[in-house]
Amino acid sequence: MTATSRLGTPRLASPDLLRSTFRRHAAGVAVITARGASGPAGFTATSLTSVSAEPPLVSFGIGTGASSWPTMAEAGHVGVHLLGEHQSELAATFARSGADRFGAPTSWREGPEGVPVLDDVLAWLVCRVVARVPAGDHRIVLAEVVAGDPAGAGRPLLYHQGRFTGLRD
């Protein structure tokens, strides 16, 4: 150990320890959407990961208590949207419980496989769900990319220390 490094007092594992630790981890912000029997559903995610290039696979986590979980549990296809720094309100809308996520001012259209595709995002993908893996009170959804558009303009929206922010130069 160097003179400038120090370890704090270790805390036992808990949900609060995990949340406190990951508040320090800057993450890109995505919105995941799907078409459900009662209409479109979606949620804000910071757990999006590129899993494989061949075949092209992504993953994301969703809590089984989330309002959008019943739709995500049944959906054959999902939309994955990377948000730009100009979309913090959109991210907040899809993160808020009870919000009308697809009402005005949210702008979207039906995309490939009937998946709701959000307008004005940095990039979007439509993916076929290939697995839902139990992981504590969440499910890790694995999905294979079938279509998309990476050509949106702007800089990414980030989530850090409990708030939405952008990159600094």
Overview of this structure, please?
The chain has about 170 residues and is mainly β. The chain has a single domain (about 25-165), classed as Roll (Pnp Oxidase, Chain A). The mean pLDDT is about 95. The chain is built from three helices and twelve strands. The chain has a seven-stranded antiparallel sheet. A three-stranded antiparallel sheet has the order 1-11-12, with no helix packed on it. The protein has a two-stranded antiparallel sheet with strand order 7-8. It has helices at about 15-20, 70-75, 90-95; strands at about 25-30, 30-35, 40-45, 50-55, 55-65, 75-80, 110, 115-120, 125-135, 140-150, 160, 165. The chain is about 15% helix and about 45% strand. It starts with 14 loop residues before the first helix and ends with a strand. GO terms for molecular function: FMN binding; riboflavin reductase (NADPH) activity. This is Flavin reductase family protein. It comes from Streptomyces actinomycinicus. Keywords: Oxidoreductase. One of its GO terms (biological process) is pyrimidine nucleobase catabolic process.
Write the SSE topology.
Blueprint (H helix, E strand, L loop, with lengths): L14 H8 L4 E2 L1 E7 L2 E7 L3 E5 L2 E8 L5 H6 L2 E6 L5 H8 L12 E3 L5 E3 L4 E13 L2 E12 L8 E3 L2 E3 L4
Antiparallel strand pairs: 1-11, 2-3, 2-6, 4-5, 5-10, 6-9, 7-8, 9-10, 11-12
